[in-house]
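Table 4 source record.
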Amino acid sequence: MTKESLNLGDNYSSRLTKVRDSIKRKGIDGFLVTDVHNVRYLTGFSGSSGLILITRKETFFVTDFRYKEQAEKEVKGWDIIIGKGDMIKTIKGLSKKTAIKKLGFESSMAYEVFRRLSNIGLSLNAFEGLIERLREIKDVIEINSIREAVGRAETAFLEVKPYMKHGVRERAIALRLEERLKKNGCRQIPFDVIVASGPNSAMPHAKPTERKLNKSDLIIIDWGGEADGYFSDMTRTLLIGGDNVSKKKEIYQIVLKANKSAILKILPGVKSKDIDFSAREVIKRAGYGEFFGHGTGHGIGIQVHELPRITWNKREVIKKDMVFTIEPGIYVPGLGGVRIEDMIIVKSNGHEVMTTLPKELEIIK
């Protein structure tokens, strides 16, 4: 066993200990985890079907025959149970075996599963975000994986960037960027690459079309990388040279100022809404407040969007080793849009910007 795998095992053990501490505090006998992302976080299982049952002393990983071999390779230190069709009967049997009377479960669990669980004679208690809140704080192995995901994404972008020019279609750029992401080691694409030019760039989540890039276009490129199941997410906006671009240059500089203002605010103890305010106020004072309608950022890890949420209606306290995006934008219908997105890791005395691509406006000839 390598030193890294030993460390990884220690991290899984630490995560499990924190869940058990929560079980004890909440006065329940066991906790059922059905969200596949949380299952992976606690066990390392990367398959698409599995659940876990944690008691104060035992740990059970339950999957079906399709994942038997994969579970044996990935899930260490858990009792692996290969269910035979009916997971509810398996849970009932385990609950009886371990004398569970009060069972906690994730509030995100499917209603049909909840309905059937309600009939097996247990006291059920729903908990929201119990595992997700643990996932907010990244350990060193998670941070290294995210850092690698950032590097792969940036390398892919730089390889495709010379191809981004007048006359090339949005969809062609997106496909080429996806190809380079995979060539650089990404086993999966975190989300569909966004390439939005001209009037399309005024839509924050536009899908690439067959539209050709034209002179004077703003071009938003939003993409991400992957490493060891962890993701990155970043956005850059380019401008093709042409006439009547002064307003587009203006909104770019406003968004850049908002991006930098929010990043400067980041350190442990600050509230997430105050970081959002730092970006939003810059845009509002410049007269474009109505054109910035989404949150300033979001956590990222084994999901592209996870806690914390950096937005105006969240008062989460920022903590060391949180990783999240900062992505203010201005989207003016008919004119175009600008978004600049970086990834940040919170340090004990401030922050580190994980993304390294230049942010000053680049005008394509």
